[in-house]
Amino acid sequence: MEDELLGSGGSKSKLSQICTGISQRYQGFLDKTVPWQKVRWVYTILLLLGFATRIIIAQGWYIVTYALGIYHLNLFIAFLTPKIDPAMDFDADENGPELPTRANEEFRPFIRRLPEFKFWYSVTKSTVIGLICTFFDCFNIPVFWPILVMYFITLFCITMKRQIRHMIKYRYLPFTHGKPKYQTTETGEVQNM
What domain of life does the UniProt record list for this protein's source (predicted)? Predict the structure, then answer.
């Protein structure tokens, strides 16, 4: 009897080792993709185009598409939002905290609430799950899709308007393209490049 118990415990241990090995390989693959930002996004956009093609050809699964769109909008807003919300910074003056505009001010980099890699990973994973859902008829709930499209466009416009106002009010830009770069000289002076 004890041998049978040890044997079943051994198989659980073996299953656990297999799951751990698969998990480590998967994490290793993800770690290798970190420096390939543009390639990752190209494959994700191709995956999104494949999903859209599937929806257009199948003429269904609009609820899945709508849920995926709302989830992606939520991720995008988290990607655009700073990790520490300036509206909650009680040490700020009446205008709120700002990024430095002069060389003698403290440098505070923009840190996202949702980092780029996690944003990409969540978008890709959710798109794959959405694509898998399109192969099951139980998710193909009949709905008048133009209403969902109009509701999504309205929600997108309202959300982005609020986010842009927040960016203007607290003077931050969540993208690094086009920002001035500063370099210190030998005398310790900061110069704009």
Answer: Eukaryota
- Could you give the CA distance from residue 42 to residue 28 in angstroms, rounded to a whole number? 20
Say what the pTM is: 0.71
For 104-141, what is each residue's pLDDT tens digit?
666 566 677 888 889 999 999 999 999 999 999 999 89
User: Phi and psi dihedrals of 125, rounded to 5?
Assistant: -60, -45
Q: What is the DSSP string of 172-187?
A: --S--TT---EEE-TT
How many angstroms separate the Cα of 64 from the Cα of each of 45, 125, 139, 140, 172?
A: 18, 14, 7, 8, 34
Domain ranges for the chain: 1-33, 36-176
Q: Which of 114, 102, 107, 111 is nearest to 73 (CA)?
A: 114
Contact 63, 134 (CB under 8 A): no
User: For 35-43, which contacts have Cβ atoms below 8 Å and span 24 or more sequence positions?
Assistant: 37/116, 37/120, 40/120, 40/124, 41/120, 43/124
* pLDDT band (50, 70, 90) for residue 74: very high
Tokens for 11, please give them: 């198989």
Residue 191, SS3?
Answer: strand
Six token digits for residue 191: 């110069």
Q: Which residues pair with 82 in a beta bridge?
A: 112
CA distance 56 to 45: 16
